[in-house]
Amino acid sequence: MGIRGCCLAVLLTGGLATPLVGAAPDAIRARIETYRELGASFKAVNDGLRTDEVQTVLIGQAARHIRNVAQAQYGLFPSGSGPAPGLKTKARAEIWRQPARFKAAQDAFAGAATGFQQAVASGDADAMRQAARKLGETCKGCHDSFRTRAD
């Protein structure tokens, strides 16, 4: 059945990824897929901001997806989906050992995603660029603390 099987439902319509977890490997696969999609949205934002004429429609779509993932991210790290023998994940055990600190990082990302979407809605290219930088900083901060670099 795979990642979209009956044990795990992932709704990506409109960019929202909400896993219904049946097992740790499914939760990990859903998390990986969600963050790959998020990476594609970040690429679209960066590409859209690098042009002479800012591509507000493309950036707006990506901003909605980023905000939706930021809202859904709280369900992407269920208990038992962390590092364990036989489970391949880049998520560090600190996520589950320091849940308040991890939630603070998630909250920072969610706030920055909302701020970015507001900047995009304003149509101000400089505001979009500034908000995109802030959003990227929240991602980096979480990765530095809660994600391994090893494969």
From TrEMBL:
PROSITE patterns on file: CYTCII
Protein's name in the database: Cytochrome c
PTM remark: Binds 1 heme group per subunit.
Transmembrane segments: none
Keyword Nucleus: no
Chain residues that bind heme c: C139, C142, H143
Signal peptide positions on this chain: 1-23
Gene3D superfamilies assigned: Cytochrome c/b562 (1.20.120.10)
InterPro entries (alphabetical): Cyt_c/b562, Cyt_c_II, Cyt_c_prime, Cyt_c_prime_subgr
Biological process according to GO: electron transport chain
Entry keyword set: Electron transport, Heme, Iron, Metal-binding, Signal, Transport
Pfam families: Cytochrom_C_2
Domain of life the protein comes from: Bacteria
GO MF, any single term: heme binding
CC terms in the record's Gene Ontology section: periplasmic space
